[in-house]
Amino acid sequence: MEPSEYRAYDGLGLAALIRRGEVSREEVFAAACATIEAENPRLGAVVRCRFERAEQEGRRVDPGSPFAGVPTLTKDLLMAIAGEPLAFGSAALVDWRAPEDASLVRRLREAGLVILGQTATPELGLMGITEPRAFAHPLNPWKPGHSPGGSSGGAAAAVAGGLVPLAMAGDGGGSIRIPASHCGLFGFKPSRGRVPLGPQYAEVWQGAVVEHALTRSVRDSAALLDQINGMDEGAPQPLPREEGFLAAIARPPARLRVAVSLGEPLGAPLGTRLAPEVRHAVEQAAYRLEAMGHGVEWCDPPAEGERLADSYLTLYLGHLAADLAWISEQTGVPVGRLDIEPSTRAIGRLGRWLSARDYELAKRYWNRVARAMGEFHRRFDVLLLPVAATPAPRLGELYPDAGKERLMALLTLPGAAPLALKAGMLHRLAREALCRTPFTQLANLTGQPAMSLPLHVTRDGLPVGVQMIGPMGDERRLLALAAELEADSGWGHRLPRAASGESRADPG
Fold it and tell me: Which residue out of 147, 151, 217, 261 is catalytically annotated?
């Protein structure tokens, strides 16, 4: 199999070829490795490869499994493989080895996926861009001078660049949906607790983080969710394994009631300015849905942008402080001497001074907005809104500059962090961190399923996704709607030509 042919199929398409004997698993594996070796030096999507071990694991793949030996990549964050490096995008953990497989990794193998390596992430997954100091910065395959987004930027660059048909990703505040939007991919965030994070974690960021994938086709995303969903042993939520996600996309959903919003209650308090192309993408998606027979009405979500951002950042700070303490424990290096980026150190310092009272009050707001969204969905089946305020930013545009880093360094001085919190530093951080992406955290706080759909490309050749959020636990209807839009728009042919050739999903 030539790399150009390999890049033309989605995951299930490759699996069908393998099962029919038209290509062997070994040929697919060789094509994937050759593609990564040829393209990754330019893209910077993959931070480490494990071809030898992957080849051994591939020999044990059940040919009757759903993915039958299809290659994939995991993220250099949370997705542990026993005995292998997992750096969390940080120089502080470059020598750390995971003690055991993550539950997700085990399920990927059972599904017949072969893990070829790990993809780039910002340090500790903290940013909506992927520019870690310890590793190469992945490029956006649509325009190499632009960012693929974050924190699953390496995964997005790998899929959009044709290295693999699907790559694993995580989403704690938009980290699947933002890269999907910037790279013209389908990005699906399941409901809270749907995909297990064990055994290392019960929840990450109080349940805001959910793992799944970035894919080229809806059916790959749905088939994967069939295989990886359901609680693992000792999980905090009693969510048994379910089936039928792939089956749900076989037919369009019944007429849906769709609320359309430009996200003003979320973005305006943070000073967000919506790019005209983003507005156009949302409006065109609304027109498309209406033409398909769905009911469309303009209505904003019942959320207060500033309070939502503050409550999100409050828990973000608290968890970062705990993460740095864990890194110190694992490496034997005091927190103050960890090899971490200046912004990570400063934000972690603020987190150390965060009170338990403020932390709990922030979490209580999550419940309030979740209840309000539950009531909202009595009236509407789906909420349509932007993913990000702009198309993909240029590389380096959103990373803290030297001046900001010097200011952040002052927070490490004795007594500076508690004074900064009293002076409103949290509000300032929220505005700066979320001004470009204030629309995605809502679904993480409420736990709802959400997705980014690649329905628009700007005149400058950059993709713009639109976001859709459904009621808690209603992944099937969202996936069915996504498949209907995929068929109507033909987005599979919009991948960068160098990566896709003539992209196709084999019907078998």
Answer: 151
CA distances in angstroms from 410 to 286, 346, 430, listed in the order given:
47, 8, 19
Give 323-335 pLDDT, tens digit per residue.
999 999 999 999 9
> What residue ranges in 387-431 does DSSP mark as E strands?
none
497 — pLDDT class (breaks 50, 70, 90) = low
Q: Which helix (H) or strand (E) holds 468?
A: strand 463-469
Nearest Cα residue to 157 out of 435, 478, 463 = 463
Q: For residues 43 and 161, give the distance between their C-alpha atoms in angstroms, rounded to a whole number.
A: 8
**Under 8 Å between Cβ of 111 and 87:** no
175 is catalytic: yes
Rounded CA-CA distance 184/117 in Å is: 22
**Per-residue pLDDT tens digits for 416-438:** 888 887 777 777 877 888 999 99
Which token pair is 26? 């070994």
What letter would DSSP give residue 401? -
Higher pLDDT, 141 or 410: 141
Residues 146-160 as b or e (16 or more Cβ within 10 Å = b)? bbbbbbbbbbbbbbb
Cα gap 398→26, rounded to integer Å:
41
In 3D space, the residue among 209, 269, 201, 262 whose CA is nearest the CA of residue 236 turns out to be 201
Query: Is 343 one of the catalytic residues?
Result: no
d(CA 460, CA 142): 10
Tally of CA atoms within 13 A in the half-sphere of 385 that contains its CB: 27
Single out the catalytic residue among 75, 152, 217, 261: 75
75 in active site: yes
Pairwise CA distance, residues 171 & 121, whole Å = 12
Instruction: Give SS3 for 135.
Output: coil
CB atoms within 10 A of CB 250: 10
Report the phi/psi class of residue 276: left, alpha or beta, with left for phi > 0 and alpha for psi in -120 to 50.
Answer: alpha
Distances (CA, A) of 75 to 192, 370, 391, 434: 19, 28, 23, 23
Rounded-to-integer distance, Cα 452 and Cα 468, Å: 7
Q: Please identify which of the residues 103, 175, 191, 452 carries the catalytic annotation.
A: 175
